[in-house]
Amino acid sequence: MSEPANGYVTIDGNEAVAFVAHKTNEVIAIYPITPASPMGEHADAWSAQGRANIFGSVPQIIEMQSEAGAAGAIHGALQAGTLATTFTASQGLLLMLPNMFKIAGELTPTVFHIAARSVAAQALSIFADHSDVMAARGTGFALVASNSVQEAHDMALITQAASLNSRVPVLHFFDGFRTSHEVAKIRLIDDPVIAAMLDAEAIRGHRERALSPDHPVIRGTSQNPDVFFQARETVNPYYQQFPGQLQQAMDQFAGLTGRQYRLFDYEGAEDAERVIIIMGSGAETVAETVSALVANGEKVGVLKPRLYRPFAATALLAALPASTRSIAVLDRTKEPGAGGEPLYKDVVAAVGEALMAGNLPFTQIPKVVGGRFGLSSKEFTPAMVCSVLDNLQQLQPQNQFTVGIVDDVSHSSLPWDESRAPALAGDTIECLFYGLGSDGTVSANKNSIKIIGECTELHAQGYFVYDSKKSGAVTVSHLRFGQQPIRSQYLIGDGRASYVGCHQTVFLEKFDMLQKAAPNAAFVLNTTHSAQQVWATLPRATQEHILNKNIRLFVIDAYAVAQQSGLGRRINTVMQTCFFAVSGVLPKDQAIAQIKASVEKTYGKKGRHIPRRNFEAIDNTLAALQPVTVPDRVASELEIQDPAARQTDPFLRQVTAQIIAGHGDRIPVSLLPADGTYPTGTAKIEKRNIALEIPVWDEDLCTHCGKCAFVCPHGVVRSKAFPVAAVADAPLSFKHVQIKGKDYPQGVHISYQVAPEDCTGCSLCVDICPIRDKSNASHKAINMEPIEPLLEQEKINWEYFLSLPDMDRREVKSSTMKGSMLLEPLFEFSGACSGCGETPYIKLASQLFGDRMIVANATGCSSIYGGNLPTTPWAKNAEGRGPAWNNSLFEDNAEFGLGIRAACDQQRVMAEDGLRALAPHLDQELVQSILDAPQQSEADIYEQRQRIEQLRQQVNNLDSPQARQLAPLLDALSRKSVWIIGGDGWAYDIGYGGLDHVLASDCDVNILVLDTEVYSNTGGQTSKATPRGAVAKFSASGKPTAKKDLARIAMTYEHVYVAHVAYGAKDVHTLHTFLEAEAYPGPSLIIAYAPCIAHGVDMSNNHRQQNLAVDSGHWPLFRFDPRKAAQGQNPLKLDSKAPSVDYGEFMKSETRFNMLWHSHPQRARELMQQAQREVSERYERYQQLAALDWDEETQ
Amino acid sequence: MADLTTTYCGLTLRSPLVPSSSPLTGNLDDARRLEDAGAAALILPSLFEEELIHEQEHLHRFVDLQDIGHHEADSFLPTAHALASKLDHTLETIDRYKQSLAIPVIGSLNGVTDSGWIEYARDLQAAGCDALEINLYGVNADCSDSSADIEARYQHLVRELVNGVSVPVVVKLSSQFTGVAHFVAGLEQAGAAGVSLFNRFYQPDIDLNTLEIKPCLSLSGPQEALLRIRWLAMLRPQVQLTLAATGGFHDGPTVLKALLAGADVVHLCSVLLQQGIGAIGAIESAMAQWLEEQEYDSVKQLQGSLSYGKAVNPGAYERANYLEVLDSYTPSRGVRV
Q1: What is the per-residue pLDDT for B333?
Q2: Which of A589, A600, A800, B105 could disulfide-pair with A604, CB 3.0 to 4.6 Å?
Q3: In the CATH hierarchy, which top-level class contains the domain A687-823?
Q4: What pLDDT, in 10s, does the model give residues A596-625?
Q5: Interface list for chain B against chain A, based on CB atoms closer than 8 Å
Q6: CATH fold of A431-627, please?
Q7: Which CATH number is correct for A1013-1194, 3.60.15.30, 3.30.1330.10, 3.40.50.970, 3.40.309.10?
Q8: Residue B321 zone, left/alpha/beta (φ > 0; ψ -120 to 50; rest)
């Protein structure tokens, strides 16, 4: 956080809250979960820097193995008398619930800060609603809501004070993303205010109640029916007093800062008749709308409950105008089957109770209706607020309504019309930016907000929307600036943006960006076309918008300017300069000076080189930015793409393609599956076209080793073998040659084909290719070439390639690299990071076993690139078979997979029993062959499936209850391959208990741990897989402890197949390991080394890093196969040589290690030396184990 | 015992033995041990502008520009820490050396941009360096870039540097100049306080397994000293600036030869890395013993006494090709023929 300017800072909600939490606590237990992770990251970083709290000590930050662990640690820290806190959201909060009951039951003051997020139901969602918070309302924690970044900052302190004073713990919540990630200009609370708010006596009381052998007591007793009930009632006075104590803290805070909060804040007409009651960020939108309506003379208002539990009914009613006639209570949660959502029911009860008591403070009995809004951050706009208020005007307002969606199933939704939104007061400037995740647009915009927020009197707001992809992600930045605090908690609407920046030319055909543009807006386009040429390249709709709205068009070739200025492909500074040059938010000269000052401040500490290049870019931008004189009429036939137009399947057309096009908000309820079930094989329809270069196969050089297809993280490099006659009708440019190798007869050709529109351009296929042209060493058997001249031709070739039949799996020699790569990947085109180190393993499993695979996938990167709508890379083959996939939770994945295995086994047993019972009525030879089928090889499995089909016909012909019972179980007779997949955060930390239990069982599951050595998906937080000396979030000073040796732990069971693999270092080893593990009839654990962008290395070096990891001893390769022990052989085989590369060489090559040399050189040296010793010793230990004479050992 | 003192760019040194850039001169513990072992000054590990740029770009790429545009993470490594650069580390090292060591500390710089040369030279001077050694080396492989142009650029750079800093500037040279002597004279005119002969470099090697090019650096061998000795001898009578010998000086006798040829100081590197810091004492002892045995009063007396013009057979320094000469027909100069 930069120094406050005039008391203001420009930060997001998470930082605003963490700032107070770190100032006011002594022990902070953390665990990563979106969108709360940054609070823990800030706290950890500040403590690592030695930043002290208000009491003068540096808070101790402890990362735990799960949120349940964090809550337990906080419970302990509180019981021992420290001030302690934690941060979480969603499932994390649910894991904390048991401890929260305890903490509240023991009247322990603390504040848990919650970035409210949906709880997973039909699907996981990382976005905001209050389903998590509402699940905690029975814990005994007070529930206090904040509605904006400033409020979250303030309330973090107010609740801390109130909790200390009252002994009632508080759950302080604010909306995930909308508040936690919104960047806003806020007034920072200074230390004297914080100090003044915290009552020393209350703190002393807390410490005196602590467990101590110097004044021993016991807590946490076990109570019987005789006293538990009464004891539970003892706390009532504390809860009765809490609202008053909270208000007292609010009043004290107001006295110190001038910002007054009340338990229930009312805004609107004094004589309002229609009132909305709402918590969270949506309340700001209602307040903003109400303000505009009141100005128009409407009698409306909004009540914003700050305190939700304990529920202060009298205060709530008292805060409403006596004139209130109808009330709409909006809940941002859903309780299926309930008679209404929680806040609504509480308000109804409050009104009812007051009515019964005869003290209803209204001139007439108000009608109260409840509605749901904003689940999973669904947009909630002023037009929707108007719709809710309109509903209240009805004689019989609709109850249990929804707003913001089209519910054509239950018909709950209120209609709304965005064009009917009232004109809002103020002079807010709204700006939109369309960029790529990797082009720096978002970081440049965050920087612009800071510049404007901190250098001017203007208020500023930034909110950022992403498309869930990790490569080629599209980002849309929504920025607002204005003289007044900005209360609009929704995206910039149609016709509102006075500045639109299109930072990638390809977006022109994808998004109707100028729909959002206001009249006379500025539109800056990054394009290679000059001001004279650009008009002809614009889609028709864009030209129409420009002419109809009198939009000022500017062009810049940002990539050329960046290149010219030495910034490579980073256009952030260039486009930021364009914004300041054109938008007029600041005077141009002042703006340019401020950008330069900001560049110096941001990058200057690391040297002069980066600032200098950015300065150059700024100056070059001003010279290159050109206004366009537009013709006076539309002259384009180019249409903005409609992804739905390509789809014939109704679901893909009406749902999937709509989400791809960014129109998901328009999909009505009826079109969405009720149980969260979606088709697989949909990633292929996206055709994202994000590669600048694609690989091109040189069929003359190639030896058909298959390595390129093996390593392709995105499944775009494919091989197929076919009789040459099958390609007689091939396009001329389709390449195929006689396949090499003794396993393939003459006349069988092979083709390596690239899916050009799905490639990310990572170049790893070229990197791994071992074949070089004898006359030109830089030319390999596969080479990257610019996509543009190849695209159309390769699209045709790819379609033709797909039309060729796959080789019969029974004939494929899958134990060879070449053979296995002839198997169709059933995991393709994921949105994982370009060059991802995880996906090749998953793809391999899908090739080898995909047609019989069921996947239990832990939450994490693999569940996001595997199952985040709109599409999935999990696919099916021509027969319709393929992996079936589900993500249960983060913490329970091993158990989830075990359950699937148990179900498969149980159904197989039931089917076999049923088959035996029905055998007299069936072909007995067929029955026996099914029951005796070995199902080991592909041929075995194929034959079993054929037999099952025969059997199915016979069973279907039987008309008996037994036959009808057996029919749906028949598929259980063919072998199923159960895979439990997840990252190290799951396997080493949160899911370890379950993983351990599954390993201890004898169930036949295959566990694939994609070990990136950090929590990758949430941003690189430390796990127990993180190696010693690595810098990661939550280990900002380098991890002081060694990586957990999960493999060795698993080996101690002796019946578990255990392996360490690194596909980029030894590909055939990985292939054989997968085959062995899957064939092993018990638990198998494959721990797979997966380079990740979190390592601070470009993924084009993925294979080099795997080699270094293996050669340095960081990642020894081995297999522990219990089958060998049964044969009297040592089950452990060490498959990599003794470390041959200095561990320091490996560490130097990755930023996660080498940045410690820049921040803590002495510590880096020590940790490196320790790590070097460890890897050597570990290898020696494995070597000793592998050298044991097993016969002697077992005798 | 003979007086071992010498002068280096105006600095009086207790002996001509000066450890050159190596890991040993990069940390205070070893620097102290070098001083204790008899080092007369030391040259810090080279500050390579190219490396500093690479470091800045690396950290910029992986620390400043982490955002991939995903909801759940806008970075993947912690960014809050202040990250010290190699420059910071070097400047801090100089500061610590100046507080802890009595011997002169000489900065070493290898720049790539005009501004970089000057700015980093000033940084090193401001941190307290007593002199600067600059490594003028580039792989000048452009056919259109003539030797004259390259030399002119180098001389211009030296002039700029000399004007930009107040401490003496020593130029560490490659031997690969067509006219070494002419070029050194030009450097003297440009204001260089000394030259160091000669630099050694990474050489690319070919990996026959991967057909990839790999960098390769080997330690110097004693045979390399001869090239230096020749040029010291040739230059000594022609220029006034300080002459330093570097590359292949591993024992007392070779060091003595450099001094005889005209060196003011002799740099030690590989020998210290191979034999340890104690080697400096052994070399000094061997030198002192020889001087005593040969009844020299001082190193100064010895320096340049075998340079071109003072040598018995100076033509041997000039000879480019091996010539087997049984010189039996040349009469004594004292005999009238």
Answers
A1: 66
A2: A600
A3: alpha beta
A4: 999 998 888 888 999 999 999 999 999 999
A5: 52-53, 55-85, 87, 89, 119, 211
A6: Pyruvate-ferredoxin Oxidoreductase; domain 3 (3.40.920)
A7: 3.40.50.970
A8: beta
